[in-house]
Structure formats: C-alpha cells, structure tokens
C-alpha cells in the first residue's frame, strides 16, 4: 500500500526534526513494515513551469512551431528573456502554461521506451532549449489524458509563475511510503491515511485532528418512507448507509483530488468515482455510487439466488451461488457486496443523481466470495480485514464534504437518507493485572505512562484495586474491536510497541538444560535425506503440492483419493498430490532437456481425503497428511538394468545408514503392481508384512504421458511415517577378529528358480560358537555354453574363521565342504 506524506499532514503536523529515515524506521519497529520511500519530485528534476510568449512557424517543417517560452531565471539570463523551443504540439498557444523539460531532465520520447536524458539539440536547423512536454513523456498521462499524442500538457490552471519547479506547481513534491500489505493483515484500521496518521501521532505523541463525524442535518432532509435500505442478512451486513444525492454531473474532479489518488496508485476517472476512491484511501472504508436512474425501488441486501447472473464493472459475468451476498434493487442484483459494482448501475456520462453506499460487510463472507469468483479489488482487500461499522460515520462526513468541494455553486440535494444499523457493535473491555503486565514486560511502567500510551491509541483506561493486585480496565475503541485486540496479551503488545522495543533492557533467560531430547521418529526424515544426498549422490528437489492433470493421468489414472482445490493456481492444477511421483516425473521430464543421466529425490507431505483407507479423525477438517519420500534414477533407454540395480541397492542399504528397521523388497500375489510400473520390473517395499511403498521401472505408456522420451526411469516411493527407527540400545558391539579370517570362493550349479536369499540362509546354517562360518556373500552369477540348460552358476564367498585359534587348511576345507554338502542336500547344488 502506498501512503502520501502530504496527505498524512492533513491530520497531524510532523515536526521538522523527525527525519524521513527515522519516521520509516519507527513505523517499521512499532506498527507496519515500510519497504521503501519514494521522493516523487526526483522524477521531475530540471522540469519547470513555462509560459508561452510567442508561437512562430518553423521555416523547414509544416508540423513544427518555434515557441518562445519564459522559464524563469537560469542564472545567466534574466526572468524576462524567453528561450526558443521547437515543438510539435497541436494545441500549443500564446499565454499557455506548459511543462518544460530543461537539458538534464529525464523523459520518455513519445511516452515509450526507457528514460533518456534531454540535451540541447537542433531540430530541423533550429536550436531548441529543452522540450515542451506531453503528459506521457513525463509519466503524467493518467492525470492529463489525451487522444492525440501530439497534445501538449496544459497546466494553465496552476497559480505559479514561470520557472517554478514542476513538482512544486502540481503538488507532486511529495514523499510516498511503500508499506508491506502483509504487515497490515491484522490491522484493518490502517488501510487508509487516517489510520496511519493516528499511529504516527501515537508514536511521537503529536496532536491528532480526526475528521468530524456527520451531524444530524443530513438525516433531516428527507423522511425515511421515501427511501429505504432493507438488510435480509444482518450477519453478513451489519450496517448499510444509503444517501440519495441529486443535482450532480459527470466531470473531472478538482486537480488536488485527482493528484492525491494518482500518487498512491489509482487512476482518476470522474468526480463521482474519484470521490468514492478518495474516501476509501483517506478513511480505509470502501464506498460505492449507484446511478439512481437504474435502481428500481429500494436497496435490498440479500443472498444471491443460485445461478443468478451478475455482470460486473470489469465486464466479467458471474454465475452466483446462494453463499454470495449481493446488493439488489427490487428486480435484480446490481452489485457483489463488498467486492465490485455491477455494469448496469455504473456511473454514465449522463448520470446526475446517485445513491451513495457506505456499508459494512462481514470479512469472512467477502473473502470467500473473492476466492470463489477469483475477483479481488481494493474494496474487498479492505473488507476482508474486518472493518468496524462505526467507521461509516466519518466516511459519510468526508464524502459529503468532498461533494460540496467538487460541485461548488451547484444545487446539490439530498433527497433520501437511510442508516440501517440493526445491532450496534459491542464495546470490549479488557482487564489487565498490573503484576501480570510487569512480569510480561520485564519492567514496571507508572500508571500515568500506561494511560498516556493507551490513550494516544484511542483506548480508555481506568485503574482499580482488587485484593493485593491493581487491575487496569481498558475499553477498546471500535476500530480495534474487530478481532485485533481481544485479550490482555494484545494490550501488553500495544504498550510495548509504543513504549519502544529498544527501551527494554535485555534480560537473560533463566533455565536449566537437563539433557537432550532424542526424537528418532522426527529425525528419521532428515537422516533419509542426508543418506540420499550425501551417500547416494542424489539431488533433492522441491515441487508444488498441486499436480497437473496430465501427470495424474499418466501416473495415477483412475485415482479417486486426490483432493480438489476450490481456488487452484490454474484450471489444470486443481488437485492436491496424494503421491510424490507425478511431480517427480515432471521434474524428470524437465531435467532430461539438460542431462542424460541423473538421480533426484523429494521428501514432502502428501494429502489424502476422508475416504483414505487408513483411520481418519472425524473431528478433523483438514486433509490427512503423511510424509513420503520418492526418488527417480534416470539413464539412457538401454540402461534399465543399471538403474534397477542402483535403486535396489539404495533402498537395501537405507536401513543400516538411517538406523531403522530393515525393509524388504518383494513381489508376489499378495502385492499389487503399481499402475505406472513396467509389468516385470517392479518390487513392493515392506516392513514385516506391511507394504509401505513400491519401486519399479516407469512403463513406456506412463513415460509417454509424462513427456519422458528415450530414457529408462526407475522410481520409488515409501511412507516415512511408517518407518520405525531403532533405539540406541539395539546397537551391538563386535570385536575385531583376533585370529585370521579366510576367504573361500566356490562356484556351484543351481536350478534357475533358486533365489539368492535361500542360498544365503542355507549356507549360513545355525548360529553358535562352533560355527566357523562368519559371513556368506554373493560374487557373481553366470549362464552360458558351459552351463546346462535350466541351470545357473553362482559363485559365493565364504568367510571362515575361529574366535579361539588360527584354523589349519584342513579345517577350512572341512568347513567349506560341509557347507557345499548342505547346499547340495537342501537346494540340489552341484560343483561345476
């Protein structure tokens, strides 16, 4: 939000000894975050008011003229000696006041492109001192619009002599504070210059001149029977003021009003619309003007009918729901309450009477409407924050003063007035224990200091003894009672920020650290990410929680578990992810443009609906969220065996590195193949009998759906929340062998269907002190001409050794022979 310092000065007088940098700092530290300050006059350096003394034809150009322009004292010549400037303006004339850019000024040629520095130059052989500007060339098109780009900016209305700096003459010598909107979220009273001025007055203890509320003169102008406001939903609309004003006309607003709303980012339109915008920017209360000629009967605030149509001022047509609140006449809806007016009731060139709306709407209802219809306006932004109904009074007073200012001498009549305020807003009183306040602040502030601080902010304060404690009763002003201030902690915050956070002495925290809290279940996610990144060389990626439909159709076709967002970032990305794999495949597709081989992973939460197969708390309104980790190993199309072994090795070694229970990779009738996986190359990931994930080669059909071409992609995904970390006491210490360990390799023939796990378990035998076999490991597998059909040659490595002595070669041979014999008896193994 932009704040004009000149506008602020309508309410307070800022002492000259307060520098702008200090003002911005103090506002940031106590109230709102000031992101920057812009001195508007800097944009108009070397630009002055010029008075055209003569207009002569150019000797060599039919469309150019030579103007003699008085531009004030330049230091080397007197005020009365004009300068020649070549100009192509179609409306330049003698006696006209114009904007003159002197050499050194920064302008845009014909209002386009980058700023360029103006220099002395000859135009068709005639030396020209500077330039007589059009509004677009110096950034003022919105204030001085034109139809022909050759139109010169006419500023004859200013009461300034030749040579006056242009910024000073037009009132543009202003400082604009740029305030971060996020810092205003919980402060609805600060969405206007009036509220910001009140805060600055409180910070520096300055006199504050609030606008006067409307007196009863307006209400006496007409009986209520002639004009009525009907509110059907008083929860969604606590108050509605309607004023019927006649005797108006559509014309430009006074330049000062146009200038002010332009300086803070809005475009002037006409006097009626500019007044409504000006009032909103001044008080923070949005207003709207209806053309009375199109309003049939009374104003009715009601819920929309399901399917009811409304054409907005922006030109978009809405199909409303019964959750929307509308402003209607006795025939149809004419505005979306708190958001935008309808096209039917807009101010037309022929408008001469209006109904001025000053209303209060429920914050939650307005926000839901803006989200539902994707319409966000300056008005809805303010109503969403929770404006107090009492602000309507000063808004009405400000608006009526502006109508008198904009239409002097016209016979303006108020022919109707109705203030429907069925239930006054409640005044909140908060009791604060001074002992509690002292303990929280860390210092004791005198009662007079507390009363001064809170009084500046509009709170009424009184003190009373209650037993051994003293209680401060604080009456909250209406503009802070909409949810901003409601508990003693809020009062403490108000005192602390105005007293000055820098005025509190730092106090060390007294505490005792008795021992570290070990949370293996929490740390397991970090351990997995460190394992995949550091030990496995994978790159971590982050993706959005929403998923594109093309990736859903490719990876999770027919999935009924995905939650749909009511306000998605785009129509094709309206689902929240129930799996990490769709977005991971998108990342694979994107990275394949730059790399042929890579491996990536992501650890994040996935969202499941209430129909998820696991138990769901019926009291919970948010989706069930579980943390998953997923990875992708990518290589060229002929390297599918490589990426399979790579992924399988990463998963098999994860348990040991992460220090968690072992996971197993299996497949069979009890395991369902993932829909995205190849028919053959896939495995289920289990802990015990529970399936917690899967891995597999991305099928050709799924890869095509994701835009993955000429690549083998191995995917895995598992549920981190289902993993069980091991406790430290499960670690075992094993001595380094005191006696030599011998390696013994043996190659045996097995049937093709025999699994390696069966071979390993059979060779290991039973554990015991007399078992000399320390470990069995796989070396290689071979099939070829030297191996009979239906057989395979498996080479295994036996580590043989004793804990008591050094074994002889005969003892080693005897142990190996016993193992081979056992493999032959159990699994039918035979020596090659």
User: Which bin fits the share of residues in helices?
Assistant: 10-25%
CATH C-level name of the largest domain: Alpha Beta
Separate helix tally: 19
Total number of beta strands: 39
Give the biggest sheet. 7 strands, mixed
Distance between the termini: 84 Å
The CATH superfamily of the largest domain is identified as Phenylalanyl-trna Synthetase, Chain B, domain 3
What does this structure look like?
This protein is of the alpha+beta class and 832 residues long. The protein has 6 domains: 2-33 and 180-209, Phenylalanyl-tRNA Synthetase, Chain B, domain 1 (2-Layer Sandwich); 42-169, OB fold (Dihydrolipoamide Acetyltransferase, E2P) (Beta Barrel), CATH 2.40.50; 215-420, Phenylalanyl-trna Synthetase, Chain B, domain 3 (Phenylalanyl-tRNA Synthetase, Chain B, domain 3, 3-Layer(bba) Sandwich); 435-503, Phenylalanyl-tRNA Synthetase, Chain B, domain 1, CATH 3.30.56; 520-722, Bira Bifunctional Protein, Domain 2 (BirA Bifunctional Protein, domain 2), CATH 3.30.930.10; 742-831, Alpha-Beta Plaits (2-Layer Sandwich). Helices cover 24% and strands 27% of the residues. It contains 19 helices and 39 strands. The strands form 11 sheets. Strands 27-30-31-35-34-33-32 form a 7-stranded mixed sheet, with helices on both faces. The protein has a 5-stranded antiparallel sheet with strand order 5-4-3-6-11. A 5-stranded mixed sheet has the order 13-16-19-20-21. A hairpin with a 2-residue loop joins strand 9 and strand 10. Helix 18 crosses helix 19 (809-827). The protein is elongated. The model is unreliable at 219-224 (pLDDT under 50).
């Amino acid at each position: 939000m932009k704040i004009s310092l000149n506008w602020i000065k309508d309410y307070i007088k800022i002492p000259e000894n307060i520098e702008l940098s200090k003002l911005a700092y103090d506002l940031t530290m106590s109230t709102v975050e000031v992101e920057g300050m812009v001195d508007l006059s800097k944009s108009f350096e070397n630009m002055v008011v010029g008075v055209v003394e003569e207009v002569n034809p150019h000797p060599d150009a039919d469309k150019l003229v030579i103007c003699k322009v008085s531009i004030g004292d330049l230091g080397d010549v007197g005020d009365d000696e004009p300068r020649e400037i070549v100009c192509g303006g179609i409306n330049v004339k003698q006696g006209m006041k114009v904007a003159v850019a002197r050499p050194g000024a920064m302008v845009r040629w014909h209002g386009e492109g980058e700023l360029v520095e103006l220099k002395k130059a000859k135009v068709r052989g005639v030396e020209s001192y500077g330039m007589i500007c059009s509004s677009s060339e110096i950034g003022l098109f919105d204030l001085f619009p034109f139809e022909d780009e050759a139109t010169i900016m006419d500023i004859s209305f200013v009461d300034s002599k030749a040579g006056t700096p242009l910024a000073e003459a037009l009132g543009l010598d202003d400082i604009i504070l740029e305030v971060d909107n996020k810092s205003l979220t919980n402060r609805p009273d600060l969405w206007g210059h009036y509220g910001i001025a009140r805060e600055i007055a409180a910070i520096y203890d300055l006199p504050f001149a609030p606008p006067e509320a409307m007196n009863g003169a307006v209400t006496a102008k007409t009986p209520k029977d002639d004009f009525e406001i009907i509110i059907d939903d008083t929860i969604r609309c606590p108050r509605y003021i309607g004023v019927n004003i006649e005797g108006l006309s559509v014309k430009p607003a006074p330049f000062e009003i146009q200038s002010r709303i332009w300086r803070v980012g809005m475009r002037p339109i006409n006097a009626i619309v500019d007044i409504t915008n000006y009032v909103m920017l001044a008080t923070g209360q949005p207003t709207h003007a209806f053309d009375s000629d199109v309003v049939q009967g009374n104003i009715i605030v009601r819920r929309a009918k399901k399917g009811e149509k409304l054409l907005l001022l922006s030109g978009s047509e809405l199909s409303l729901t019964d959750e929307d609140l509308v402003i209607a006449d006795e025939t149809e809806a004419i505005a979306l309450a708190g958001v935008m007016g309808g096209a039917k009731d807009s101010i037309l060139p022929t408008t001469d009477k209006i109904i001025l709306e000053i209303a209060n709407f429920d914050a939650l209802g307005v926000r839901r409407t803006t989200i539902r219809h994707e319409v966000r306006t300056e008005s809805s932004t303010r109503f969403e924050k929770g404006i107090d109904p009492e602000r309507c009074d000063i808004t009405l007073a400000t608006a009526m003063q502006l109508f008198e200012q904009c239409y002097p001498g016209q016979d303006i009549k108020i022919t109707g007035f109705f203030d429907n305020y069925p239930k006054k807003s409640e005044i909140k009183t908060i009791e604060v224990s001074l002992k509690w306040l002292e303990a929280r602040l860390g210092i004791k502030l005198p009662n007079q200091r507390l009363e001064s601080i809170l009084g500046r902010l509009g709170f009424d304060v009184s003190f009373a003894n209650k037993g051994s404690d003293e209680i401060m009763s604080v009456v909250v002003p209406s503009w802070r009672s909409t949810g901003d201030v409601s508990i003693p902690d809020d009062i403490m915050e108000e005192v602390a920020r105005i007293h000055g956070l820098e005025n509190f002495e730092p106090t060390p925290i007294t505490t005792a650290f008795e021992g570290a809290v070990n949370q293996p279940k929490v740390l397991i996610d970090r351990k997995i990410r460190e394992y995949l990144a550091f030990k496995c060389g994978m790159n971590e990626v982050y993706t959005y929680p929403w998923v594109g439909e093309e990736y859903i159709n490719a990876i999770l076709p027919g999935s009924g578990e995905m939650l749909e967002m009511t306000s998605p970032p785009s129509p094709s990305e309206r689902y929240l992810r129930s799996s990490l794999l769709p977005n991971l495949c998108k990342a694979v597709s994107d990275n394949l443009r730059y790399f042929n081989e890579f491996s990536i992973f992501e650890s994040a939460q996935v969202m499941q609906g209430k129909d998820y197969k696991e138990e769901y708390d019926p009291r919970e309104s948010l989706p069930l969220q579980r943390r998953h980790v997923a990875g992708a190993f990518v290589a060229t199309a002929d390297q599918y065996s490589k990426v399979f072994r790579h992924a399988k090795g990463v998963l098999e070694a994860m348990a040991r590195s992460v220090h968690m229970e072992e996971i197993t990779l299996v497949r069979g009738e009890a395991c369902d193949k993932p829909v995205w996986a190849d028919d053959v190359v896939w495995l289920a990931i289990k802990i015990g009998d529970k399936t917690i994930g899967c891995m597999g080669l991305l099928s050709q059909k799924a890869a095509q759906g994701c835009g993955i071409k000429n690549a083998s992609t191995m995917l895995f995904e598992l549920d981190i929340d289902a993993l069980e970390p091991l406790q430290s006491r499960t670690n075992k210490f094993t001595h380094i062998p005191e006696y030599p360990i011998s390696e013994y390799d043996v190659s045996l023939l097995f049937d093709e269907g025999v699994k390696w796990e069966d071979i390993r378990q059979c060779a290991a035998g039973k554990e015991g002190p007399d078992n000399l076999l320390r470990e069995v490991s796989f070396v290689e597998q071979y099939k070829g001409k030297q191996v009979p059909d239906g057989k395979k040659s498996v080479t295994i490595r036996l580590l043989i050794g004793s804990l008591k002595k050094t074994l002889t070669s005969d003892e080693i041979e005897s142990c190996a022979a016993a193992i081979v014999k056992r493999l032959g008896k159990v699994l039918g193994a035979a020596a090659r």
